[in-house]
Design brief:
It is a single chain. The protein is mainly alpha-helical. Helices cover 67% and strands 0% of the residues. Helix 1 runs antiparallel to helix 3, helix 4 packs antiparallel against helix 15 and helix 6 packs across helix 9. It is globular, with a radius of gyration of 21 Å. The two termini are 31 Å apart.
């Protein structure tokens, strides 16, 4: 017996769009206060401590969000090739432009290229290679696109499996995925070996251990799958009435917890346990039309720029730090001013990339082809590209 059609859903998940920018901003702050340090002194130390895990949680948010939004906006008449075409049109043009920009900047800075790293990055394969010199080559942040590409390839098949799961079994499935996010760091800790890296955490972890937990796409797919299950729970009306305020409190409390647990537990999938409730609560708020601080016009517009911002900010931060900050005895105010300038430059470049590359390609190649007239219930399904803002 086929499942009855789901009730009409919110046309646009604007709160999730707004949250996307906040997640990208967390990654930016991680890169400017911990990975590099624009502000020195006690203030810089304090900022570094606060945002030391911000990048990890920002990326986890994107992985959960991808699973949620793709499931939420899936159409019954969609096909795997259409899904892949839309996702390719969304991510690959921005990737190619920033890949070329990285190559130019590396030439100017006389940075070395490696054949393996360059080709792996170009074809979004870098996250699959457990070699310290590969995942963060070229535009370093594009490693996460390598992971997302795996999600997109698997999504049509995962969705088919998920749609066969009865509503009553969705919570046990979510609990199982959550458990595996806790098991993965244990596997990395005790079953993966390698040469310890003295500059990571306490110096006892190898890159192979970190790669397994943080970069390896099948492990990170647990977060994507948890987002998919959360979307089904919301669609089926099985998600609890959790407001945005308590969901945000869970996310903040989880961040504090992940900052205190052993390194492998705090850098990847366990963040999904605290961020999935926020994603679901924001979608529920939009569906019910309840107030949301993430739905403001400016924040939503910034959310629309968030992917382009994410793709350009690493290059802006890396080379601004090397050329303007590193080795200079800057005052705290000067460092903070350069940090704000880097943020403004990244936003300006993101707007250019979004308007001249991302949007035109999505409009030309990312919109679904017209489908035959659908029954009234099916017509209520939201548009997978324009309405979900993924």
């Amino acid at each position: 017996m086929s499942r009855p059609p789901a009730p009409p859903r919110a046309a646009r998940l604007q709160s999730l769009t707004g949250l996307r920018f906040l997640a990208a901003l967390l990654v930016f702050l991680f890169h400017t206060t911990w990975q590099t340090r624009f502000v020195e002194g006690a203030a810089g130390e304090a900022l570094g401590d606060v945002f030391a895990h911000a990048g990890f949680h920002g990326v986890t948010f994107f992985f959960v969000l991808s699973g949620f939004v793709l499931t939420w906006s899936a159409r019954p008449d969609d096909t795997a090739p259409r899904v892949w075409r839309r996702r390719l049109a969304k991510i690959y043009p921005n990737h190619l432009v920033t890949f070329a920009a990285a190559a130019v900047l590396m030439l100017i800075a006389a940075d070395p290229f490696t054949v393996k790293g360059t080709l792996a990055n170009l074809f979004l394969l870098q996250a699959w290679i457990p070699d310290l010199t590969v995942p963060n080559t070229m535009n370093a942040v594009s490693w996460s696109l390598s992971v997302e590409a795996f999600f997109y390839l698997a999504f049509p098949f995962l969705l088919r499996l998920l749609n066969r799961v009865p509503t009553a079994r969705l919570w046990p499935l979510a609990a199982s995925l959550a458990a595996f996010t806790l098991i993965a760091p244990l596997v990395g800790q005790y079953l993966v070996s390698g040469t310890p890296l003295p500059f990571i955490d306490d110096g006892t972890l190898s890159f192979e251990q970190i790669w397994f937990v943080y970069f390896f796409p099948p492990v990170r797919a647990l977060e994507f799958a948890l987002g998919m299950v959360a979307a089904r729970l919301v669609i089926e009306g099985a998600w609890p009435r959790l407001g945005l305020l308590p969901a945000a409190a869970i996310a903040v409390g989880g961040y504090a917890l992940d900052s205190a647990v052993p390194y492998l537990f705090g850098i990847a999938g366990t963040g999904a346990l605290w961020l999935t409730p926020l994603v679901a609560a924001a979608a529920t708020a939009d569906e019910r039309g309840t107030p949301s601080p993430f739905r403001g016009r400016v924040l939503v517009r910034l959310g629309e720029l968030s992917f382009a911002f994410y793709m350009v900010h690493g290059l802006v931060v890396s080379y601004a730090y090397r050329w303007l900050v590193a080795g200079r005895d800057l005052s705290g105010a000067a460092g903070a001013g350069l940090l704000v300038a880097a943020l403004a430059a990244a936003l300006a470049l993101a707007w250019v990339l979004h308007e001249t590359v991302e949007n035109p390609f999505v409009r030309r190649f990312g919109s679904p082809r017209a489908a035959p007239p659908a029954p009234r219930a099916a017509a209520a399904e939201p548009h997978p590209v324009l309405e979900a803002k993924e």
